[in-house]
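Thread: Piwi domain-containing protein, structure

OP (GT): Posting the sequence first so everyone is looking at the same thing. Length is 826 residues per the record. Can we get the structure tokens written out before standup tomorrow? I want them in the notebook alongside the other entries.
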Amino acid sequence: MNLQYQVTENLFELLNLTEHTFQYRKAPIDLPCIPGEEDDYHRQLNKIALKVGRETKGPALIIRDTAGIPYVAVPANRRLADNFKVNTSPSVVRLTLRSEVHKVNFLNCNDQEWSLLSRFLEFEIRKQIKDTGNVVEDLAGRFFIRKGLKGMDTLSVALMPGFSFRIVAEGLNKAYICLDVTSRYVEKTYLSKKVNYQNVTIISKRLLAGRKKGFRCLYTMGDNWFPIDVIGFGTKKSGDEILDNGQSLHKYVKEKTAGNTFSVENLVSEEDAVVYYRYPGNKDMKPMSAPASLVKRQFKTGDREVKGLHSKTILETDFRFNLIMTNLKRFFSRLKFMGKPLFVASKPLQRETPVFPLKPLKFNNQKILFPYPKGLPAAYDYPLKRRSFLESNGILDQSGFDTQYLVIPDSMTMPQKLLDNFKSRFIQQVQGLNSSYSGFRQVVRISGNVTLPATDYVDLMVKTLQSKGITEGYALIVIPNFGDDKKTAAFHHLLKKRLYPNIKFQFVDFEMIRSFYEYTEDENGKWDYHQVNNERAKLFKSYLFYLSLGYLKANHKYPYALAERPNYDVYIAIDVHERYAGYVFFYLNGEQIYFDYQEVDLADTSQRAEKLSEEKIYTKLYANLKKHLERKYCVNPNGIILLRDGISHGGEERALKRVIKDLKNDRLIEHENLLWAVMDLHKTSRVPFRIGSNTNQQKRYDRPAAGSYRMLGRQFDEVFIFPTGQPFSTKGSSKPIHLTKIAGNADFLKISEDVFSQCLLAFSAPDRPSGLPVPIALLDELLQPLAVSKKIEHSDEEEVTYLDDELENDSSRWDEHKMAEMQIQL
């Protein structure tokens, strides 16, 4: 079995980095760290770096000397006034840069100096790209080319093509530009086409409804284009005297953009409505004003205005690499640093890449699916066999069910004959997967009045269930067509918050069910529902199969498990959605999986919403692990690995160490040197790493093999794993998950292999790939009943769309200094 093959990576070597010397100066930070307030202390340090960066109009980083004293470091050519004041807690900090200039070379730097070096270099490259005048930069440091994608002229939305890059290290002696392509949705017309000073009150309510932070737009102020959050509209016209100096906004904008290549002369008018905005991520900033005729809406991937455009963003691997090469030649071929050329390789890196093998899976009736039958090197039928094994043998968990209910719209919406047919087919399908299933104890009809507000409809449903004495159990809930995606989503989340966890349920769309039936009138004038043609009948059978798997999963009954013991016995996934932290405990091969959650304080908008205290983590980990180990779900585990969805903050490591110590005292862990680790798992990484297989003779670049991985970083403490490549059939190119080892003594490569193995447990769709390990995937699904998820779904269709909040939280990534002179205070 060949576990390596030839690939091309989107990495371009920095060829003469060793010829450059990087110079910086630093200012000591006199800020006390109060015991128990370590989290706030680090927030204040980050605040200092951000303030200094804005003041010096350049990068600023926190570093420490050998004694642990913190400093803020800036490039040596930046200036900061002596005794520069930063208001921090618990005291004001005064900063003065020391005169000493520190010099760093690529070959003799430590990890901290490498962070400085790469950040300074990246800043200079970004500046040179922006100076071309052809791009717009967003908060996450991605660049978008102003001209919309060709071939979309008939649409109201333009797809702005773009690219992103990061500097990455491979060990101590090599560094690369990692370059990928992306895109962004922008409305073709300006807001002035919808909003004017006469209708501004009505239209603004519609545009701002449900958007506390406003909505994202693009401000095209002459040659300066930049993202903004529109937070309101003025009642005056652009030609009125609204600025502090008595000047009109219209006159100010024309003066500021005079002589620009992008002329606003024929766009702006004195009749324009006035838009109030802030820079994204800067809630403390005073609102500024802009004419509506220079502001365009931007859309997120979930917005209904762009749902039909997602196929435009899916790029095959070959085409993706062609676009990458185009951007490389256009923006990275003439770079300089400190006046000296900086050479970037003109061709992407080619190498042999290793592959984790596909894993055998355990099904009901002790059936084992082996991925490589008869020693064949490829597993082309692995996805289809996962499904056929389920259809032939049923799911692995054949245990009994708690009380089951069916909740449906009233008879005017869902006639009895249609209900009877669907219910019979559904029960038959579930019983084919789990013979213990006996159907629904009770069928409950709910009013199908979709004109009710979502809150009222939820109240009606809850009251109806309570009147029937239904307070716990599991339910399949058929929801009517609300005719509005936002209303449907609101209903979903409101109902889940009201019923969960006492009543766990699976939603099913009534319109989807009805689409598989047709009806005729019998001789008595009654409607008879029956299956449509054979093609639709096949689709309905497949639909019922997936629906049944989803319903079984809602009942915490999972279809299959790994056939072999993993490298480490216990994996715990942790994430936070709004007010709730979720924990998934995955034992051994996955036959024992458990979920728990806790309420947490809603984070201030200035803080990361996903931060958890050490005490909260400890409380849940210890209570669950103690209970589960006492029940012998896993006896004397050889290792405990904590997977943090996103970024860990230190509390995870401290809590896990305490838990291990206490479990040893309880004699539930007997390994003297238990192996453990804290890992950060990024569904979407700031490093836009991709690979293309060179093994397809018809294509220059093809999708990689599932299980391909690449280790990067100065200490090789980061790995990119591709779970969705061959033999899985997907659209576009494969997207990796990004794992970073934060702490611990467990073997990084063994953890990475286990995480890939968990990606093979695609419980929802066994014939399709899963882009996430099952503990993380379940965590997202199980937390959604408690809080509205703000994360991008990790689809097997590799969309090259921009990421909404996930990458844009860090405003320090965005250079707003160029816009400072354009600020218009209200």
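GT: Both are above now. Quick notes for whoever picks this up: Residues 21-109 form one domain. The longest strand covers residues 157-170.
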